[in-house]
Every structure is written in structure tokens, then in C-alpha cells.
Amino acid sequence: MKKIIVEEFIKATNSRNWKKVLSLTHSNFIRHSSSIPNEIQGNHSLVEFHKNELKTFPDLDEKIEFLIEENDLVAARIKFTGTQKGKLGKLAPSNKILSASFNCFFKIVDNKISDTWVEYDNLNGLMQLGHINSDLI
């Protein structure tokens, strides 16, 4: 079942087991997103992205809310929780907790993740962290 590969990937990411993350993804892996960075190419670049994300959210944790598998795709709703202890781009640490769900689609080829499509509600996240005042909207 392809869902197990996704579960193992999230578990490896949460435990910072980068060797396992690399073994679960193709070397030419691509992460697609409308959020910055828009595209990550290569599984080593993905690991570097996650390591940098941990500089911002050192207590980062992701929990799978649900998975749906169809053919070579797995759709996931994932809950992200983390305290912003580091800079977020040019934004100073807020020391506030971000708790938000996001959608991710995983393409599995030859029992490894070849692509992901990830979409976040960035506006909600920036509001939770205190970087955008909801009165402005």
C-alpha cells in the first residue's frame, strides 16, 4: 500500500531521520507548491529544506489527519505544529505556536515518492504568528 510509504515519510521527517527520508524519495524528487520555495528539485534539496524549516520551527511536528490512496497518488491532510523560534524569511521570531493543517499529494513510483504537491494557508499562518494583523484584512 502506498499510504504506508507516506506514513513512513512523515515519521522519518518528524524524527529527523534524513537517511530514511532519502531512502523513501527518488533522487530526482520534485516538491511543487504555490508557496515559497515554489519548487524543490532533488531529495537532498528536500532534506536541506526540512533542516532549514527546523531552524524556524525547532519543535516542528506533523500528524497525519487522513490519507486517501488512488492508483499512484496518495492525498494527505496533515496537521503542522511548531513554535516560531527562528526567522521566517525576513520576519523575526514570534515565539508563537503555529497550528495549521495543509494538503499534500504524493506521487509514488517504484515504491518511492517521486513528487509532492503541497499547499498551505499562508495567510492564516502569518496571522497566527502575529506577523499580519487580521484588522488589515
From TrEMBL:
It comes from Leptospira levettii. Coiled coil: none annotated. Pfam families: SnoaL. SUPFAM superfamilies: NTF2-like. The lineage of its organism: Bacteria, Pseudomonadati, Spirochaetota, Spirochaetia, Leptospirales. This is Ester cyclase. PANTHER family: ESTER CYCLASE, POLYKETIDE CYCLASE SNOAL-LIKE DOMAIN. It comes from the Bacteria.
